[in-house]
Structures are given as structure tokens and as C-alpha cells.
Amino acid sequence: MINVTKSYLPDLEEYNRYLEGIWERVHLTNDGPLLRELESQLKEYLGVRHLKFCTNGTVVLQMALKALDITKEVITTPFSYVATTNAILWEGCTPVFADIRPDDYCIDPDKIEPLITENTQAIMATHVYGNACRVEQIQAIADKYGLKVIYDAAHTFGATYNGRSILSYGDLSTCSFHATKVFHTVEGGCIVTDSDEMAQKLHFYRSFGHRNDDYYSIGINAKNSEFHAAMGLCNLPKVPSLIAARKQVFSWYDTRLDFENITRPTLTPGVDYNYAYYPVVFESEAKLLQVVDALKRNEILPRRYFYPSLNTLPFVAHLAQPCPVSEDIALRVLALPLYPDLPESDVDRICQIVNETVSANVASIEQ
């Protein structure tokens, strides 16, 4: 069975060495020494001022909205994982969907400004597949109208834009460290800020709003454990080699797929990519479904990612916000298997099945 992704696991002895320290200290969670060490190493690796390691990549989106006092309308993308929209709704805000660019599938800045109203407070954009949004245009709009910018940067770990970590852009930026990501802590995520004051606020938000018996603010339990931090400390030094291995798999796809009848999203100029995903877009949903069926018959499991377009979800249907580009791409996009140790022979087989299926479809239509 070939899954769309496969989690990297470090050498068990290396992880066990961290576990021995946890057993000796009996400090399992609550801002432990491994968590602090991981935060320090992550800040250095990413070149960011403040980073809070939390339980997952969704709660940090919720924390971002709360910390910025966002209570009304948030302009966001319909082409993302559902967590982006769910976080907005969960915090009692209203998502306003701006359509995406037809080339890179990130939110289209030209579609944002016409949607701004007196109730608009923020823009929450997703760096799709680890590729940077048009951050300069988005920031210019935000500055013009006094809006906050939150980036769902769940896919961007290890990727840079103009020499800076993509996580360094926006008022607040979040990342997922889920087991399927380029860098993972099994479960986890982080929130990044350049502001000392905001970092202190987020620190208390993460831990019920108090330190010992002193209470400073509202808060939730977004703390992560020493066990998750240990996994992160094992995996972080491996990120450059993991990205290099992903890049090799990526290049095999590039040279073997027949792009006569399929396309791929373009990369934003200035991005040094992390090769997080390998999405391809077919000419129609019918062709996509035929390819999925052919791959599954060979025990290969791709993923319709992202699907559906979030503006079509049943619980936002009352908002009635058409996004034709996103709705179209969501029906036709498929993420092919990609992970560091995916054998070249398997990539050959996947590409052969995709090419033959698409070619057969085209030949049938032409006849």
C-alpha cells in the first residue's frame, strides 16, 4: 500500500534517550525543559523572534483570532484545509471568501479589496501547499484599511520567501507540526509573532491565562508535552535532508508525468520551496475520478487535497459566496504520494498509471 504521505520517524534509540530524561525528571508537560529547548531551536532555525509551541495547528489559528480581538468579518480563502474556516467560525467570526489565483491557488489579492466592509477586521490567508501568498499585496491592502493579517502557514516549514521564513510574515503566523508534515512532533503546531507584548499574551493564552496562582487573562489548554517536544528535537536536525529527499521525489514526478493533459500550480517568484506536496490538476473531475480509481486498484492512495472548496461547505451555505476558480480547481486537483523514502520505482509506477489513464481518456474522447 502506498499512502499519500508517510511520517518520518527518527532512530528509536535517539528518541529513547530523551525519554530517559523525562523519566528521570518526571516533568511531563507544563512548559517543560524539552519544550523550551525545542522552542529555542525552532526560533533559531526559522529566524523568528517569538514562537510558541502548542498542541496543534488549529488551536493556534483560534488563538490568533482571539489575541488580535477579531470578532466580526474575516476575509479568507476557500482553498485550504477546513481548519482555516472552522477556526473563524469557532471564534464566532464570519468568514468572507475571496477567490484564489488561477496559477498558484493562493488567495487573490485583487479579490480581497472589493469584499472589505465596515465589519472587516482581518485577512486570514493560507500559503497553499507551502507556496507563499502575494504577501506584499496583502499587506498593502491591510495597511490601507487598518486590517490584521493572519497566515495559515501549516505547510510552509522549511520554506522561505525572499530569504525569510514564510512564517515570519503577517501580524501572526501559524504552522502545523502534525505527523504528515515536513517537520512533525506527532501532534503539534506553533504560532509566531515579532511582538514582545503579543508573545506574552499568547504565552498566557496557551496555559489557561495564569502562572502558578497569578491570573493574567483568559486562556485555554494549548500546552504541548515533553514527549511531543522530544520528537521535535529528534526531527528538527533532519529537516534539510528530508527536504532534499522530497525534492528528489518531486523531480522524478516532474520528469515522468505527461503534462500534455495535466497541470501543476506555479511557484511564487522568490520562494525557496520545501516540497511539501505534489498536486496535479486534471482537465475534469471525471478524469480525476478515473485516475483515483486506477491508482486505488493498484493499492495507491492519493488525496483530493483541497476538496471541497470551503465556500461550498453546508454550514456556510447561507453566506452564498461564489468562488468560481476555487470551486473549479477543487474538483480537479489531486495530491500524489510524496514522502522522503518513496522509491523511484513506485514513482515510475504511479506516473505510468496516471499517464495511461489520462491518455486513454483523451483517446476515447477523440474517437
TrEMBL record:
One of its GO terms (biological process) is polysaccharide biosynthetic process. The keyword tRNA processing does not apply. It holds the Pfam family DegT_DnrJ_EryC1. It comes from the Bacteria. The modification N6-(pyridoxal phosphate)lysine is found at residue 181. Belongs to the DegT/DnrJ/EryC1 family. This is DegT/DnrJ/EryC1/StrS aminotransferase. Coiled coil: none annotated. InterPro entries: DegT/StrS_aminotransferase (IPR000653), PyrdxlP-dep_Trfase (IPR015424), PyrdxlP-dep_Trfase_major (IPR015421). CDD domains: AHBA_syn. The keyword Chaperone does not apply. The active site is at 181 (proton acceptor). GO terms for molecular function: pyridoxal phosphate binding; transaminase activity. Gene3D superfamilies: Type I PLP-dependent aspartate aminotransferase-like (Major domain). Keywords: Aminotransferase, Pyridoxal phosphate, Transferase.
